[in-house]
Amino acid sequence: MKGRKLYNRIAVLREERGLSRKELAGKIGVNFQTVGYLEREEYNPSLDLAFRIGEVFGLPIEMIFSTVPMKPLSVELMERRIERGE
Amino acid sequence: MEKLIPRTSRRLAVVINYGAILLFLVCFYLAGRIGWNVPVAASVVTAILVALITFFSLHVRTKLWKLVHTKVENLDERELQVTHESLRYAYGIFTVISLLVLLVIALLTPQWDSLLILIFASLLYLAHTLPSSVIAWREKDY
Q1: d(CA A7, CA A5)
Q2: I need a surface site. Which of A21, A26, A68, B78 has the fewest CB within 10 A?
């Protein structure tokens, strides 16, 4: 079964936190090449791996993964604030 | 970080590697028919060298040999998926080639040997039923 494409912010979040691909790979328990595949959105992670990535970045998985192309995190946070009327 | 080899180069290496093995076999066949001579011996040496060089650059340098021979417990989920797919393809290709070789041997046999035909039929049956037999053996709900 070929799943639908998942978009993610892994590359941005990793660089923001100053992590190398190897360091992130060590934290989430995969090969560093797999991090490359994830960042290029050429591989959809399992739910378990998605949660591990979320735990490393301290973010809920819906902030990292999406089924539609993702906007910058700052834009999304701003939109959420506007929606809440803050 | 290791230097990656582009897919086109890897595919070319696959073709050359198997081509060298085929050349090696053809040379031995020719040597059996016409006897050993300098061109045949030179071709054998060339085939062995080309096979070794392409084997090293294709399987060892890329660490693909290590990947497909690593225990399942030590692979991450993407590597598991990649090796699973490659084994699925490899099983099918290997089965077809093995059965073709057996068929050719059977056809080249002067008299049809009933045992050879039965072995061929049994292997054909085994090749098609083995995957589902493994699932039947291992899985809980089916």
Answers
A1: 7
A2: A68
The residue-averaged pLDDT of A29-37 equals 94
Residue type, A79: E
Residues of A in contact with B78 (CB under 8 A): 30-31, 33-34, 37, 43
**Is the CB of A60 inside 8 Å of chain B's CB atoms?**
no
> Is the whole model's pTM more than 0.90, yes or no?
no
* Model pLDDT for residues B99-119, shown as the tens digit of each residue: 888 888 877 877 777 787 888
Name every residue whose Cβ is closer than 8 Å to that of residue B13 and which is 6 or more positions away in sequence.
Answer: B5, B54, B57, B58
Let me know how many helices (H) and strands (E) chain B has, helices first: 5, 0
Nearest CA to A46 out of A28, A58, A33 is that of A28
Half-sphere exposure of B134 (CA within 13 A, CB side): 5
Are B73 and A29 contacting, i.e. CB atoms less than 8 angstroms apart? Answer: no
The answer to whether A46 contacts B1, with C-beta atoms less than 8 Å apart, is no
Task: State how far the Cα of B7 lies from the Cα of B16, in Å rounded to an integer.
Answer: 14
Average pLDDT, whole number, for chain B?
90
Report helix, strand and coil shares of chain B as percent, to nearest 5: 80, 0, 20
Predicted ipTM > 0.95: no
